[in-house]
Amino acid sequence: MAEKEGSAVPPQAKGSWGSFLKSIASFNGDLSTMTAPAFILSTKSLTEFSSYWTEHPAVFAAPAAEKDAAKRAMLVLKWFLSTLKQQYASRSEKLGSEKKPLNPFLGELFLGTWEDAAGTTQLVSEQVSHHPPVTAYSIWNSQQGVRLEGYNAQKASFKTTINVKQIGHAMLHLDEFDEDYLITLPSLHIESLITGSPYVELNGSTYIQSSTGFTARIDYSGKGWVSGKKNTFTAVLYPQGKEKEAIYKAEGQWTDSFQIKDAKTKAVVDTFDHKSMKTTPLTVAPIEEQDDFETRRAWKKVSDAINQGNMDLTSAEKTIIENRQREMRQQEKDSGREWERKFFTRALQFPLFEQLAKIVGEGINDSQTNGVWEFDQQKADAAKSPFHPDVNPPIYERK
Ligand SMILES: CC(C)CCC[C@@H](C)[C@H]1CC[C@H]2[C@@H]3[C@@H](O)C=C4C[C@@H](O)CC[C@]4(C)[C@H]3CC[C@]12C
Predict the structure, then answer these.
(1) Model-level pTM?
(2) How far is the CA of 49 from the centre of ligand 1 (A)?
(3) DSSP structure string for 28-93
(4) Residues annotated as region Disordered (predicted)?
(5) 182: CA distance to ligand 1 center in Å?
(6) Which domains are present in the chain?
(7) Which ipTM score applies to this complex?
(8) For the chain (length 399 residues), average pLDDT per consecutive 10?
């Protein structure tokens, strides 16, 4: 692949970017094995990405206060659409391009809370599998009675660019109505790879299926397809099985703004504009107070080395983590036990997921996610403090 004019690749990295582009043309689909040049490396691990679901806690909690079932489903759709920008474009917007995240190690955690007008919203994110890499999360606001749980893995392929299929799902629960929403995850591809300023574009369709009989379908399109604008979508919300009887329609740019209209009257019933909606920052414990498994503490030396642009130190620090992980896996193998996840457990039965997934043509891909992962309240209670020191001894010594 040749470099184009207008490249965003730093002059000293042109050679390594060229080699990287050649290498991904034949890579095996496991994103964790991809080695990328320093300037494209992120200091954040994928366990942190779970927080992108709730950067607007009030929008997340809004459906819990809506008495009308169709409007509730519309507010769930609105919240989902509002999360896409943080999930898929925040790196390219803040850092000038998409970056390659750190590959979480098994047991890695990201814990935090959001405090704002919606009250306290809590986040637990855990790497529940390393091969294949799978991140699970639970996000809840007890005052508002809303909880999101999910897990995801990624399967990548190369055809003209990097294409990524997400495997997994999210499930939103509203206590007041004992209502659940199954959320499927979009496929994506990387644009502008050749020029060295990669960004994410979403493609295909995803669904939100409620247990009370509403379906939302979201269709993603990029520049030049339908609207000529990047990051565009259209969405339709309808009574399950009656797609022609749309109740609400939404359209816009998931990185910018969108409108939701009453499908019959065409009246605008709700809007969302990222320019006027401030995100609530997530509060995370200071690094010195974090557990050794918490991502920012565990990866600190690697992140510092990336920030210094010191690739030798970056790989040396990564190797320390990887070797320790290998030792731990060996110890587990020798003692015939599996790593005990701190907050999640493999579900043996998942009737609700099966019931909702069937409606939107989704299936269980547990072989690709090393199981179907569920938040385990008993483990969470036990993990409060201290972090199960008897089950999983700390892996990184505090200095
Ligand atoms: C930038 C390029 C050169 C290297 C490829 C990096 C590749 C591993 C990254 C790029 C985009 C990443 C997506 C990200 O956009 C958003 C999400 C949503 C989040 O909820 C779960 C993770 C996921 C799918 C990231 C996975 C890693 C991706 C594909």
Answers:
(1) 0.93
(2) 9
(3) -S-GGG----GGGEEEEEGGGGGGGGGSSHHHHHGGGG--SHHHHHHHHHHHHHHHHHHHHHHHHH
(4) 378-399
(5) 22
(6) 13-273 (2.40.160.120)
(7) 0.98
(8) 56 83 79 81 96 98 98 98 96 87 96 96 97 96 97 92 95 98 97 90 97 98 75 97 97 97 98 96 94 96 93 94 96 95 94 96 90 93 56 38
